[in-house]
Amino acid sequence: MNPTLLAALLGLSAPALRAADAPPAAGRPLLTLRGHTNSVSAVVFSPDGTRLASSGGDRTVRIWDAASGKGLLTMRGHTNGVGALAFSPDGTRLASAGRPTIRVWEAATGREVLTLNGHRAWVSSVRFSPDGKRLASGCLGTQAKVWDAATGRVTLALEPRIGGVVDVAFSPDGKRLALAGADGWLRVCDAATGEVLVAPPQQGCGILSVAHSPDGKRLATCQPDGMVRVWNAATGLELKAWEAHAEWVSCVAFSPDGRRLATASDDRTARLWDATTGKLLRTLKGHAESVRAVAFSPDGRRLATASYDETVKVWDVADGPEPLF
After folding, report:
1. Model-level pTM?
2. Which helix (H) or strand (E) element contains residue 114?
3. Under CATH, what is the fold of the domain 3-316?
4. For the chain, what are the domain ranges?
5. What pLDDT digit, counting tens, does each position of 151-210 carry?
6. Beta strands across the sheet bearing 134-139
């Protein structure tokens, strides 16, 4: 996401806070993917882990071979930067979001199969439901929508009054939808009716990313003040909070087993954390500019990072007593 746009929305500047403790070790990436001609703000693995998709300020969506780093497809059609991506659960479709349009592509060919219009401002997030039948999107113009992924019909429109909706996330069973607000609100809604089910206290600054744990019992969020928080998804009770970075934390993701969290920051690093204790496990250094997005591979052994330095990097983050690189 464009940091200047978001900063203006949030009314914040990058904080100057105490840095997190030094990591046990840092490593080198397995792959560095080059091809974008502007900042890269989104990255995601395909459900089978064989492909990566990325997008950014050059208005393109690119698909790569996740093992070799070879570019497979480049999709064009967006008229502004593309800040959000999501593969369908079966890997056959890829959704991309910009301003103010969502496009759905055939992932094997790059053919555009659906265009979704209806948001009034920058579409900051897009997610498929676990069954692939719905798409959820968040918009910096305060609105969230749920769409029929086959027809493009809006099935639910939400006005949660949480400022701009920076991120959305379906629960693993698809029954709930978490909304992260630019003014610091987190809401968990019924994904069919829009009823607000959980509403933790407002935070002091905006929430930039939200992620469900694989078992659906926890939510993780991150903020411009460097904080990461883990919540009980059913009650909204805060379980753990820690300063993860000394600068903006723009993205947070659970590992597939739910044991680790990955964070992306303006300090040019990605970090891995114990999702229960908040212990720092590893810092990944190598990007020359802000890291805007992180994504685990389906087996949890690799982490992809997207950066404003126009690259995507893939790291070996397999568990072990010592780093594998």
Report:
1. 0.91
2. strand 112-116
3. Methylamine Dehydrogenase; Chain H (2.130.10)
4. 3-316
5. 999 999 998 666 689 999 999 999 999 999 988 999 999 999 999 999 999 988 899 999
6. 123-128, 134-139, 144-148, 154-158
